[in-house]
Specification:
Layout (H helix, E strand, L loop, with lengths): L3 H4 L6 H10 L1 H7 L5 H8 L3 H29 L1 H20 L4 H29 L5 H30 L2 H5 L1 H14 L6 E2 L2 E2 L9 H23 L10 H14 L13 H31 L4 H29 L2 H21 L5 H28 L6 H27 L5 H22 L9 H4 L1
Antiparallel strand pairs: 1-2
Length: 462
């Protein structure tokens, strides 16, 4: 099949829906669970810190497993890894739904995270391979819209399920979603997606276990240190080990014949700019998810329902803008929609910096919608730019690296918000938080200037 022919194919297909269904498992099972924590705490008689570990363990395990999952996809084939991942995720969800102790539930959450990481990297790699080069931005935009929508409605769906059927239903619902993803990709998706006329095949090479171990050491020490900073505990000392692990990891990978994560990927301006951009964007998103509820409920006297309504703007508009940004990037290049979208977020964050404490619920929602629309416009061009110029046999590694940047940014964003507010939530603290996030958004806009200015078809690049 030629490059021109698939460009006329429908982007919304059984394979696309299958990939998206698998990809939504990780964010959906993160946001849904938040509303179930009180019920789980009551049933198993555990305290707030213990029950909160169901979230932190999950996110931390995902971040650590992502680089390994990318290497496994490159080694064994992304379609095979995707199918194994969704099947194993369904199995882990069944264990969680029937857990008879808190320890079993926590273990099943770690298993969900590890298998979900397999699905996350392989779904992105498969989409990159199957999408026609001249419509790749549109494909990633549509994919982002589907995944973002699931994360946005997670708390609402979770609340309805917990209220009607109990917290175990949250894990039960993941099983049919995983089965649908496996059937759709297993039956509909091509076993060897075509990239520029060349089949993408698994590359037989050893897994870089020492490199992955060093990277895991860096991520564990970083995440523990960030948690210690947020809580004021001794775990913050783990941050001292993070740069040592990182330095040793980089030196080792530069000498490795088959590195788990090749530092030379960052020699590409497009890839480096995209990773910096997604890191900064998730810092903004997760810090906002902390700042806004505290502002609404602690300072303005609102309730959780009001907080959810206000935050709906940033998630819903982000989902709406994602396919628009992808489609525009196919026509004019990845740089312009990424820069303009991020500048839109800058405007919204500057306005929040100036007026957030006194703003009405409607104005807060509108300003957050502007931030979300800008993030949605810039997200899919950025992800497309990160992956489209990578060799097919290394796209899993690149996807894992990109997604790891996203999860680290999320952890840092939540920690940053907590550090700025300190022990007391004040109007000045919230304003300062939004001011810092506006500065982060300016940095993301600058980094986006290094994305490709023109759309590049893969055969033209070669």
């Amino acid at each position: 099949m030629t490059e021109a022919s698939p460009g006329r194919a429908r982007l919304i297909s059984g394979a696309m829906l299958g990939l998206a269904s698998g990809a939504i498992l990780v964010p959906l099972n993160s946001t849904m669970l938040a509303v179930a924590l009180p019920s789980i705490s009551k049933e198993f008689e555990v305290g707030p810190a213990s029950v909160a570990s169901l979230v932190t363990l999950y996110l931390g395990a995902v971040a650590i497993a992502l680089p390994a999952s990318g290497s496994l996809g490159d080694r064994f084939g992304h379609r095979r890894v995707f199918l194994f991942g969704v099947a194993a995720f369904a199995f882990a969800s069944a264990i969680a739904a029937t857990a008879v102790s808190f320890e079993i539930l926590a273990l099943s959450r770690v298993l969900q995270a590890v298998t979900g990481a397999l699905v996350s990297t392989s779904s992105v790699a498969l989409l990159r391979a199957m999408a026609p080069a001249d419509r790749r931005g549109s494909a990633f935009g549509l994919f982002d819209m589907l995944v973002s929508t699931s994360a946005a409605v997670g708390p609402l769906v979770g609340g309805l399920l917990v209220a009607g059927l109990g917290w175990r239903s949250l894990f039960v619902v993941a099983v049919p979603v995983a089965i649908f993803a496996a059937v759709a990709v297993g039956v509909v998706a091509r076993p060897q997606p075509v990239v520029g006329g060349t089949a993408q095949r698994a590359v037989s090479r050893p897994i870089d276990l020492p490199g992955l171990g060093l990277l895991a050491g860096f991520l564990v020490s970083l995440l523990l240190g960030l948690r210690g900073l947020e809580s004021g505990g001794s775990d913050a000392l783990a941050l001292l080990a993070a740069p040592i692990f990182l330095l040793v990891f980089v030196l080792f990978e530069l000498r490795a014949e088959h590195p788990a994560v090749d530092p030379r990927l960052f020699g590409s301006w497009s890839f480096a700019a995209a990773v910096v951009g997604v890191f900064g964007a998730t810092v903004i998103l997760h810090a906002t998810l902390v700042l806004v509820p505290l502002l609404v409920e602690r300072i303005q006297g609102g309730d959780a329902q009001t907080s959810g309504f206000v935050l709906l703007g940033i998630s819903a508009l982000g989902a709406v803008a994602a396919p628009i940004g992808g489609r525009v990037s196919d026509a004019v290049g990845r740089r312009l929609p990424a820069v303009l979208g991020t500048l839109g977020s800058v405007v919204g964050l500057v306005a929040l910096w100036l007026v957030a404490p006194e703003a009405s619920t409607l104005l807060l929602g509108l300003l957050l919608a502007l931030v979300g629309f800008g993030m949605g416009m810039s997200g899919s061009p950025r992800q497309t730019a990160a992956l489209e110029m990578i060799e097919p046999e290394r796209v899993g590694m690149a996807a894992g690296t990109y997604l790891t940047g996203r999860y680290i940014g999320g952890a840092l964003g939540a920690t940053l918000a907590g550090a700025v507010l300190g022990g007391t939530v004040t109007a000045a603290g919230v304003s300062t938080g939004f001011g810092i996030l506006a500065a982060v958004a300016v940095g993301v806009a600058v980094a986006s200037l290094f994305l490709p200015a023109r759309p590049r078809l893969e055969h033209a690049a070669r």
